[in-house]
Design a protein that fits this description.
Layout (H helix, E strand, L loop, with lengths): L1 H19 L5 H8 L2 E7 L2 E7 L4 E4 L2 E4 L1 E3 L2 E4 L5 E8 L2 E6 L2 E10 L5
Antiparallel strand pairs: 1-2, 1-9, 2-3, 3-4, 5-6, 6-7, 7-8, 8-9
Amino acid sequence: MMARSAFAAVVVMGTMSSAAMAASSEEEVRSALVGNTFKGGMGGGIYNSYFAEDGTYEDASGGGNYEITEDGVCYPDTDYGCYAAEIDGNQLEWFKDGESVGTGVIEEGNTLQ
């Protein structure tokens, strides 16, 4: 009986994880990121990035332009492309081609200064 309960818990947790991978809407991403700072990791490194209201981002490497579209956060004129985001409170997980590529937190305002 105990083994059955453990199996049921794993099945439920697996279902919840799959649901959590659904990308947040364009408006949810915009509301969460614009005017705020993302702090977390991607591609094996840690980075912080402030998303200004004028469509520019700022980070340790300088920054550039971003756009929030139905595809996610996009970086025009770069090789980065677009990243879908799943936002839960102040937690953010980045996805590229359906695969998780990074996680972190969203902090209110420009915390880089």
